[in-house]
Predict the structure.
Amino acid sequence: MFTWQYIVFYVVILLTNVIQCITGFAGTVLAMPFSLRLVGYDVAKPLLNILGLAASIWVLIFNYKKVNVKELIKIVLIMVVGIVAGYFLMKYVTIDKKTLYIVLGVIVLVFSVIGILKTFVFEKGAQKRKEQNLESPQEPKKWLTICKVIIGYLILAVAGLVHGMYVCGGPLLVVYASSRLKDKDEFRATLSASWIVLNSIILVQDCVNGLMTVDKLPALGICLVVLIGALVIGNLIVKKMNKTFFMILTYVLMVISGVSLLI
């Protein structure tokens, strides 16, 4: 619990959750690659899952009235299917550690590319067209609307699969939710409510599978204290710093963490 690996693990939790507090996502997906290297899958997965659960409860307490119940039900139902698939995949398919790291590294890099394109290319392009009054007033074609709905559901299912395996489905859920939930408070509240339900399911799975055991409670207690510190620091920083800078920093760190797993 106080070896150098665990101490660095606590530092990783602090730094990644500060970024999580500022950007609103990526805390677990940033922490997981380094945590796997430091303390292993059996420790990293259950502890990071509980930290995500705790952080979501904190956000929901102050924003529960903003939850979009319709989208919440849709997200939970579809992602649960993916989580169950990820659970059985990890339980019954033998995957060595090297392959596990490579798979997660590829996932993190894909998330990074999606996030970079969405944040700095597509959204800025859409904003520019809107400012120039170039948005088309025509209604979208029916087949195009159907395709968007199907793609959205597939994104949620894959997000659930990744979340069930690594507790890292956040970036893909953000891709889905950002197109449905435009209000910032509604976005944060609905996603937080989703994580409370989904991470609770994973917590039960971890307890049943013996991943969350009594001997991990002291480390969990330290992690929760570190999480509180990260939330306090993040809230102070977000009031003074440019969020765009931290978005760039987040994606740079995601790329570094993904490449570190591949090599």
About this structure: DSSP finds ten helices and no strands in the chain. The two ends are 27 Å apart (CA to CA). The chain has a mean pLDDT of 83. The longest helix spans residues 97-131.
